[in-house]
Structure formats: structure tokens, C-alpha cells
Amino acid sequence: MAMAERARIFSGVKPTGHLTLGNYLGAMRRWVEEDQHRADALFCVVDLHALTVEHEPARVRRLTRQAATLLLAAGLDPERCTLFVQSQVDEHLRLSYLMECTASDGEMRRMIQYKEKAAREQARGGSVRLSLLTYPALMAADILAYGTHEVPVGEDQAQHLELTRDLAGRFNERYGATFVMPKVTYPAVAARVMDLQEPTSKMGKSHARTAGIVYLLDEPEVVRKKVIRAVTDTASDVVYERGERPGVANLLDVLAACTGGDPERLAEGYASYGALKRDVAEAVVELLRPARKRHAELAADPAYVDGVLRDGAERARALARPRVDAAYRAVGLMA
Ligand code: TRP
């Protein structure tokens, strides 16, 4: 990267469920507050990735528009960054095929997320879609098509990013320098917000049980109820112990992320779980208030949102096209 050039950042969010507090604290907030200001940033609603498991077409479309609307509501500024929908830019699929031709069957099957999701799918008696296996090739294409330097994601994406780097290196070595080697960056605080009912697993948007998940569009009353009912543990004093007391630690992490404090220090201010939960609930409600309000305004104007996405897709296409064409030529295609 030349000194004067700004870093290019790419990240994506999958429209497989309503966006959660985990998405916001783990990723979106940093995109809004830092990344779009310091870098040449692209943010993508990766709808093609939502088709790797059983899906309802109308729901995917609705969640795709909702995710884009929420990203704008949270503060992504289309004048500062490029916001778009993956399926509106063909370059992702064009490059994904070349990534499938670069990756090996074995390395795809080693992906933890594939193994977990495939096992879950099989346990339900369903079949595993081939696209679930090849998902990381598409993800690598998402990133590499743009000459991305940095990918801000949650820690659960580490293995996919490592694979992306392997594929970039292998392709460059075989066919000549084509792709930039991307690096992953994780958020500093609350990288992983845990499920309030199951504090040892991530607050994921696609979980079936929703009592432990705070959605960005939950009404304040619903947020309060979910936080108050959060699982803690049998002790009653408030200390920060991630391993031993994951429920309380998660609440303290969320509070710290909302208020900018330090979880261990915050723990000292509480004598009971009840008081902690009340403060966490209010902090979360306040944190989400502006985005909820802005979302309601934007949702009333879908034509505006669609226009932003159309412009974003056009910009993205123009950025990706030359590099994907170069990759096609490099492997021997008549692009
Ligand atoms: N796999 C990511 C997730 O499950 C989503 C994603 C797809 C992504 N393509 C990407 C993230 C490219 C960053 C960059 O959250």
C-alpha cells in the first residue's frame, strides 16, 4: 500500500436473521465510528451466503433490505462508504469459481463452521447443500475482488480469513501477483457478546431460541425483559470471571461496551445481580435508541434505501471488475 493511499476495508453481514446486539457491538459499531472514516470501506449484505441453508425466499429478501436499512440507521454514511448487496454485483460469483479452482476439497471440509452446520443439518434429517461446503470460496472472493487490506469481523471468522489468505497466496504464486493479502482485525471490546440464556455460546442471529438474544429492533420493554431474565449463576456477589461466571461476565462486558468502562472495575460498583441487570438493560436501551428511531424513518422510505444500494452496487462493480478480469486472464480464460 502506498503511503498516501487509504486502506481498503471489506466486511459483510449475512441476512439469515434479525441483526442483534452482538452484531452491533461486535462489528457494526466499529464500522460506523471508525472504519468508514479512516478507510475506503465497503460493507456488503451477503445475501448469497444466506442460501447455503434452507431458506424462505421472501424472508431472505426482507432481511436483506432490513439489514441494509439498519446499517444506514446505525450510521453508515453512503457518502463515506460503499454499502451494497452481494447478489447485485456479479463479480463475487465470477471470482468464487476461480477460488473453488484454487482451494482443495480437504481444506474446505476442515472448516469448523462447515462441520458444525453440516452436523446440525444432518441431525435434523436434512441434506447438506453443496454451497455450505463451498461457502468459504465465495467469502474469499468477496474479500479478494476488492484488493481488500483489512477485514473487520468477529473472531468466529478467523479460520475463514486464514483460508482466504491461503487462497490469495496460492493463486498469486501459481498465476502471478493478482490479489492483495488481506489481514483480519477484531474489535477491541465485547468481540463476542454471548447469549443471555446460554452465556457460553455466541449471541447469534440464526438461533432458534430467542429469549437470550437482543435484537436491534426489539422494543425497549422487550430488551429490558430479556436482560432481567439473563442467566447468571448461583453465587450472588458481582465479580468478573469469564471462565467461572460467564453469565455475569457477559453482562459486565455488555455494560462496559455500552458505557465505555472496564468490566472488572464496573463489577466493583454492584452488590447484587438485580442492580447490575437494571443498569445493563437501561444502557442497552439507550445505546439502541437512536438507531431504532432512524430505522423507523428509513423503513418508511424504501425507495431511498434501494437507491443507496443501487449506487453502492455500481461503485462496487466498478472497483471489482478490473481485478476479477485480470484473474480470469491469469488462469487462462479469454476475459
Ligand atoms: N462469513 C461471514 C459471517 O458468517 C459473513 C461474510 C461473508 C463475510 N463474506 C464476508 C465477512 C466477507 C467478511 C468479509 O459472518
From TrEMBL:
Which SUPFAM superfamilies does the record associate with it? Answer: Nucleotidylyl transferase (SSF52374)
One of the record's GO cellular component terms: cytosol
Name the predominant localization. Answer: cytoplasm
Motif placement: 'KMSKS' region: 202-206
Q: Which HAMAP family match?
A: Trp_tRNA_synth_B
Which family does the UniProt entry place this protein in?
Answer: Belongs to the class-I aminoacyl-tRNA synthetase family.
Q: What is the name of this protein?
A: Tryptophan--tRNA ligase
**Origin species:** Streptomyces sioyaensis
